[in-house]
Amino acid sequence: MSEVIKTDAVIVGAGPVGLFAVFELGLLDIKCHLIDILGKPGGQCAELYPEKPIYDIPGFPMVTGQGLVDNLMQQIEPFGPQFHFNEMVESVEPIGTPEAPLFRITTDAGQVFEAKVLIIAAGGGSFQPKKPPIAGIDDYEGKSIHYAVRKMEAMRGKRILIVGGGDSALDWTLNLQPVAERIILVHRRDDFRAAPHSVNGMRDLVAAGKMDLMIGQVMGLKGADGVLTHAVVRGADNVTHDVAADVMMPFFGLTMKLGPIAQWGIHLNENLIPVGTETFETNVPGIFAVGDINTYPGKLKLILSGFHEVALAAQKAHRYVYPDKKLTFQYTTSSTNLQKKLGVA
Amino acid sequence: MPNITFNDSTGKSQTIDAEIGSTVMETAIRNNIPGIDAECGGACACATCHVYVDDAWIAKLPKPEQMEEDMLDFAYDVRPGSRLSCQIKVTADLDGLVVSTPEKQG
What we know:
The structure holds 2 protein chains of 2 kinds.
Chain A: E1 5-12, H1 16-27, E2 32-36, H2 43-47, E3 53-54, E4 63-64, H3 65-76, E5 82-85, E6 89-94, E7 103-107, E8 112-120, E9 126-129, H4 137-140, E10 159-163, H5 167-176, E11 182-187, H6 196-207, E12 212-224, E13 227-235, E14 240-244, E15 247-250, E16 254-257, E17 273-274, E18 287-289, E19 294-295, H7 303-321, H8 336-341
Parallel strand pairs in A: 1-2, 1-8, 2-5, 8-18, 10-11, 10-15, 11-12, 17-19
Antiparallel strand pairs in A: 3-4, 6-7, 7-8, 9-16, 12-13, 13-14
Helix pairs in contact in A: 1-3, 1-7, 5-6
Chain B: E1 3-7, E2 13-17, H1 24-30, E3 50-53, H2 55-58, H3 66-72, E4 82-84, E5 97-100
Parallel strand pairs in B: 1-5
Antiparallel strand pairs in B: 1-2, 3-4, 3-5
């Protein structure tokens, strides 16, 4: 396990609101580490709608999801935020006092942080592989149904049914084909979203008789005690077939799940975190919730609301990080002190 | 205003006045139609507003764009009339449209 990282603030979620929190905290000399389950900054903006226009960011008549993320990254650069991608915060343990909070924060990769404040900017929760709504699928998960493969060797000699038509499905098809007994790729249409060279690679393997491609949809599973024997596939001709398989790997994109936040000792209200509108602090002193994940009377799930929320949360966070320092309100337009922090004075 | 009929998987049916220019998904959400989740809010990014368009109406709707077809890959039990309701704009021509919501959204 790597060393404990000691920092002022840990931000959970690197979406637009988490990124802007770096700015507001940074102006108050609060150093931040950000943790996100995705492999890149931007959250939903980058993952769900990078090319889509957003029209309600003040000062931008139109900006794309990715454009906004790129601008925010540029805006927070002077504060040197540290990013930890492809990690999810698993546990949060309070080790301080309500007056001087301190949290031990552990990710699923085993990284441990000690932070004086925790900012939850987790949006709709963490992005996780979408589970296809096939009856009884839970019984097979982890044993015969996998959403990723950690050890290729474990797949040696297996009949693997891969479902989907995007890059994940095609990449796993090509990677596992040499070790598998047989790869059967199932997709609902003979048209693939994946990169053309992967699709061509797959078609070559099919033409050479080295794997199978079925056009259809998986409607059911057969097996016992979590051990899969067959997938029930309905073909384009509407006829269902039992396809023999030891392993199934479904790739139906990502969905958002609240995840382990429910176990952090914070009050929740229908999967949202209630906060006060003065400081956006949760019921736990030192833990703040901002952006889409929080709730309060009149809450609007807008990016601009999140930006406002982090500015106010930062004021209270300052009291925890610098209990002895008085905070004077300053403008970036006129304060040399703030301009120095931004690297422009 | 055009009427849209929503049938759910248990056989219940509701007919609703839809606003021209809004989408079938927005119409459903505004009227608390069960069986449409619309997780992404209409960005064609989640496939949880999947509906089956009645056979008689499939050909009358503008064809799905590539993005919608791609996103339908993530829906469960896709059939010939499958569409994402956030991508169907309500027009006067759609008066009488009938759609069914699936048993579950992916």
